[in-house]
Design goal:
Elements (H helix, E strand, L loop, with lengths): L19 H13 L5 H9 L7 H13 L3 H12 L8 H13 L3 H13 L6 H12 L6 H14 L7 H11 L4 H4 L3 H13 L6 H12 L6 H13 L6 H14 L2 H14 L5 H13 L3 H13 L6 H13 L3 H14 L5 H13 L3 H14 L4 H13 L3 H13 L7 H14 L2 H14 L5 H13 L14 H13 L2 E4 L6 E6 L5 H13 L20 E3 L7 H7 E2 L2 E2 L5 H4 L2 H11 E3 L5 E6 L3 H13 L5 E5 L2 E6 L1 H11 L8 H4 L31
Helix pairs in contact: 1-3, 3-4, 5-6, 5-7, 6-7, 7-8, 7-9, 9-11, 11-12, 12-13, 12-14, 14-15, 14-16, 15-16, 16-17, 16-18, 17-18, 18-19, 18-20, 19-20, 20-21, 20-22, 21-22, 22-23, 22-24, 23-24, 24-25, 24-26, 27-31
Length: about 700
């Protein structure tokens, strides 16, 4: 395997220096600096400003690289780069970036990478390669996207041809996620395939299988592309594996192609492999699309006869098919079997059942199913919207108003454009002018569109109602929204500013693998809906809400930018101790904190220095919340142990969303006294509430 070229660093060795005093001072710095923390590091180096030169600092940086103390090298280099005499050294920056990347310090490696580009230079091939691998090795949200960015720049900016191993590693990372979240990586996967072909590199069978798999999960199936990939496999004499056949069945069933799906099914049978339950699910879906629901039921019964384990996906699909076919008794029997199996989630099955009851006008059964669902599942907005629509349809406006108010006040559920339009139709039918105006005010404030069929009657009601004064709607954050933003910014939400610095935007990013973030994402999307960009407001259902969305650029966010975001970096306001309300702490916890196995609570904090942390700790102590502080890189962790975790929870519980309380309560569902890595035990704690000197 060829080695990646890297420029050599020219440096004067210590024994070559003519002045003995300079040699002694440099040797002393090499020995002394590693034992100190960053703040002391800077003070020691600042004390040498009268005599130290770039050559001296370069030698010290290289010395630490030779001893594999890459953190020390990085600190010295950053200090050197801030001096007036600093001259950019491409070879040194490359070597340091490569060492940091090999040590999996991807943030610092990226900082060096960006510094090279900012100097108008193109990083070496080794730096591109090592940084991409460092990102792929990090189990951190967003690192895969960054790895793709660096890989693309390596080819498009650098003009390099990556190694086969790098192509394969990145491709494997793209298809490692579940189908729903991986489908967005199709374009990147095709780019990797294109580079393999144009570089005349060997294309492994997993590349073909992965590409077909990604294509099968797309909303619009590209049959010609799948056929071309299968032809490529035949040309390379690669047999279609079970996974490939399953992907083809998934794609063909979506298209309603009975012939191709069934022929692929026969290939699966002939292969002699154990029949996966997914294949049965795709066949059920196929016959449902071709309006043959009873064939889908036969396939489901065939699974039982062949003693194929019935999966959650199989239950969901057959209940969906029978509900859409309005087969009431069969659907009810199936959901009873599903409940008895003990498998979860039950929510999709209940929703399909309620949709069936609504379309059949069986509103009593719908209400009963709604109540049963609440005893077994966490409530969500889709469930409540169906029930609300049913109540409005039967004219039970009193109960409908009660349900709407419950949705509006419960942060876990919330209301959206659909909820408001449903209750608005009911009040318009009653010609209740006051309530119509109230709902319309909510819709204007949240920028929800009124349904076309309600517009004419709405204008008539509003024109007839002279007692109701229509308030002017202005873009303004209410107190709750302001407190939520403070909590989210403390937890790590980013901001962006215009070049002029007048208008600012909030970027909300949520972790797809976190159940807490999944619930919080829906709530934040609803709570800040009127502030979101048009593209961020496209989602009609909760499952369509993206995990990343942004507000518009607006001057109203200037206060938060001035206090929390300085020159593109997070900071802690001087008056933060005045703003740490229970709601702020709750949203900080939900977004940037977690509960560990022992029941202790941790909060993540970025951008704070020693004085900032002291202010936060003192404010927490004033609330009788003693805590410990630990720094890890650029992130500070504030920990609450034992009874103080209980006290923190007691303070914030009423503001934590109902749907995540069982995931965040200090002792909910915990057994034993096991400790996780990262817990704040005495041996790990660097600072106590009363002695912050080491932060």
């Amino acid at each position: 395997m060829r080695s990646l070229p890297s420029p050599a660093v020219e440096v004067t060795e210590l024994e070559e220096l003519p002045e003995q005093w300079r040699r002694a001072k440099i040797a002393w710095l090499c020995k002394e600096l590693p034992s100190h923390k960053n703040s002391t590091y800077v003070r020691i180096l600042n004390a040498q400003r009268k005599w130290i030169t770039q050559e001296d600092a370069t030698y010290i940086t290289l010395h630490f690289m030779r001893t594999r103390d890459n953190e020390a090298s990085f600190r010295v280099y950053k200090w050197m780069a801030q001096r007036h005499w600093f001259r950019f050294d491409f070879a040194l920056a490359t070597k340091l970036a490569d060492y940091l990347g090999k040590d999996r310090k991807f943030t610092k490696c990226r900082e060096m990478f960006d510094a090279i580009i900012n100097q108008g230079r193109i990083p070496s091939e080794s730096t591109f390669h090592i940084l991409t691998v460092a990102y792929l090795s990090a189990p951190v949200e967003g690192c895969l996207e960054e790895a793709c960015t660096i890989y693309n720049k390596m080819i498009q900016l650098g003009g390099y041809k990556p190694r086969l191993s790098l192509h394969n590693s990145l491709f494997r990372a793209l298809v490692r996620k579940t189908g729903g979240s991986s489908k967005h990586y199709l374009k990147q996967a095709e780019f990797i395939y294109h580079n393999l072909v144009t570089s005349d590199l060997e294309i492994h069978k997993d590349i073909y299988a992965g590409l077909i798999w990604l294509h099968s999960y797309q909303d619009v199936i590209d049959r010609e592309r799948i056929a071309a990939l299968r032809e490529g496999m035949r040309h390379a004499k690669i047999e279609e594996s079970k996974d490939v056949l399953l992907s083809i069945m998934r794609a063909c069933s979506k298209e309603g192609d009975v012939e191709e799906t069934e022929s692929t099914w026969l290939k699966l049978l002939e292969s002699g492999c154990s029949l996966p339950s997914q294949a049965f699910v795709y066949r059920m879906d196929l016959h449902a699309r071709t309006n043959e629901p009873m064939k889908s039921l036969e396939i489901y019964k065939g699974m039982k006869e062949q003693k194929i384990p019935i999966s959650v996906a199989a239950y969901h699909k057959i209940i969906e098919v029978m509900s859409n076919a309005r087969q009431v008794e069969i659907a009810e029997e199936l959901i009873d079997d599903f409940i008895e199996s003990g498998m979860k989630p039950l929510m999709p099955a209940y929703l399909n059942l309620m949709h069936m009851y609504f379309h059949l006008g069986m509103h009593d059964k719908l209400e009963l199913t709604f109540s049963r669902c609440l005893t077994r599942c966490n409530p969500n907005r889709t469930l409540y919207n169906i029930y609300l629509k049913s109540l409005v349809t039967v004219g039970n406006l009193e109960k409908a108003e009660e349900i709407f108010n419950e949705m509006h006040e419960n942060g876990t559920i919330g209301t959206n454009a659909r909820s408001c339009n449903t209750i608005l139709r009911g009040f318009l039918a009653l010609e209740d002018h006051v309530k119509v105006a109230k709902i319309h005010d909510i819709m204007r404030q949240k920028k929800y569109d009124v349904e076309t069929q309600s517009l004419e009657k709405l204008h008539y009601v509003l024109s007839q109602n002279r007692k109701v004064v229509r308030r002017t709607v202005s873009m303004k954050l209410d107190r709750e929204q302001r407190e939520i933003l403070i909590g989210l910014l403390l937890g790590g939400v980013r901001m962006e500013s215009e070049e002029e610095g007048r208008n600012h935007a909030i970027h909300f990013e949520f972790n797809e693998s976190s159940n807490v973030h999944s619930t919080l994402r829906t709530h934040i999307h609803e709570r800040f809906y009127e502030w979101l960009t048009p593209s961020s407001r496209l989602a009609e259902d909760d499952h369509e809400i993206p995990y990343r969305f942004s507000t518009i650029l607006h001057s109203y966010f200037g206060f938060f930018a001035d206090q929390f975001w300085l020159k593109g970096r997070p900071m802690i306001p001087r008056l933060i101790h005045r703003w740490l309300s229970a709601r702020v702490l709750a949203y900080w916890y939900m977004y940037g904190g977690f509960r560990i196995s022992s029941g202790d609570i941790l909060l993540k904090l970025k951008g704070g220095n020693r004085e900032d942390v002291e202010r936060i700790v003192k404010a927490l102590q004033a609330k009788s919340l003693a805590c410990r502080v630990k720094r890890k890189g650029k992130v500070l962790w504030i920990g609450f142990q034992g009874s103080y975790a209980d006290a923190f929870w007691k303070l914030t519980e009423s503001y934590v969303l109902d749907g995540v309380k069982n995931l965040l309560a200090p002792h909910y569902g915990l057994t034993g006294n096991g400790r996780e890595e990262g817990q704040f035990d005495d041996s790990q704690t660097e600072s106590e509430p009363d002695e912050q000197g080491s932060v």
